[in-house]
């Protein structure tokens, strides 16, 4: 299906008066004309508008669009990205099960697997994941789920999705991937054999840093199962207004992602010339060790990358960060604005190798202005004299 049709018309039929902007159904409940209709809805809430916590017309349009973009049969919107990750994994796990998870995943995903699930007797093995053998060799008789994030947070390492999915299907292991970085525009893991795709919709799907939400997409059987187990019991439901904001953002995702990528490739070209930069972590950078895999399983790249600074003190990282004027100091990413996130800000460990890494989100500003901002920050760092 053409992407323009998905973004601008798919799933939008059935509303009175043919509105150009989807109505916000800001209602908690829906009423019925008869006992029979009421009963049918109560017995099949996945398919019925009964209570907005389960299903809402505004939310439903967004879910249909995301499912179409991800080449999935169905999708479910959650109140946050980590709610989507938690539901998509916990639905298929029980006490005594084993999970293999990529070790450089998003911080709260890592905490879910390293701390939270341990309380319920779920065993987790963390692997580097750059080689499919990392997953294969870590598989046990009780392994029920592989959790992937390709590329990973901060270091942007990829996993070979097709190879891992092929092995997992043979062993009846469920595969779940966080596809937030690539978006459905640049990577479709379901077409590569992955079972379930999750997104932090707060990032590029929303695109304006004004909404928090998550998405789970997959075949209808899995999404129904997640709905009836984790989603309805935990209640991590989004509001209709949040769904409307996401629909608004989704209208321009194809334009925004192209600009993010164009800007980022220009920034990477600049960073290659900076001697204070020891390494660049971006899958579409030709010196990335998995560049060929990136080109094979992705159609493009987003605006998030990391650099490793050539420094001998934390003070120089602080100086570089504080000298930036256009890049804002903030968590998250995926909006129109450029951001900086030094790994050293997440801990007090001093100058470790990982603390030399600084994550940059390249926004939609003029790329020349962003390069000028980075140039003056590198100059300030170099002249700091620490």
UniProtKB/TrEMBL annotation:
NCBIfam families noted in UniProt: ala_glut_racmase_Arch
Any one GO cellular component localisation term in the record: cytoplasm
Keywords: Pyridoxal phosphate, Transferase
Molecular function as annotated in GO: carbon-sulfur lyase activity; cystathionine gamma-synthase activity; pyridoxal phosphate binding
Name of this protein: Cystathionine gamma-synthase
EC annotation from Swiss-Prot or TrEMBL: 2.5.1.48
Pfam assignment, any one: Cys_Met_Meta_PP
PTM-bearing positions, type N6-(pyridoxal phosphate)lysine: 203
Names of the cofactor(s): pyridoxal 5'-phosphate
